[in-house]
Request: fold
Amino acid sequence: MLSIYPACFFKEEEGYSVVFPDLNWLSTCGESLEEAMAMAVDCIAGYLYSAKMSNEGVCKASAITDIKIEEIAKEIGCSTDGAFVNMVSVDVSAYAKEHFEKSVKKTLSIPAWLNKLALEQNINFSQVLQEALIAKVGNSTRG
Reply:
């Protein structure tokens, strides 16, 4: 299902800044308009995915006509020269599968005696490694 939110694009000396007023002023940027749009998609996908994983509600998207770019520019101290509002859409589930949830195959070495004992106990190697890595790096870094 597509999630669609209005985003304010502000032309900077080098690139664009992007602000989502409906999503707690979530912002990102890019060195070109194309990069700014790609970053906006990534930014909104990450925000909405994190909110879903944390069971947090998100505001309903405003209509594009309800976004007053002059007021937003004044609030954040940006110029309206070259600024515009555009809808940014993303299928959060599809994006998450590709960027946040996709598994990566890893090869590792362990002592033969440890392998034997783990196999005898039907230990799931992938699950143990994931749990150990999460404990080591902290769950807060999860995509």
Observations:
- The beta strands are 2-12, 15-20, 26-30, 84-91.
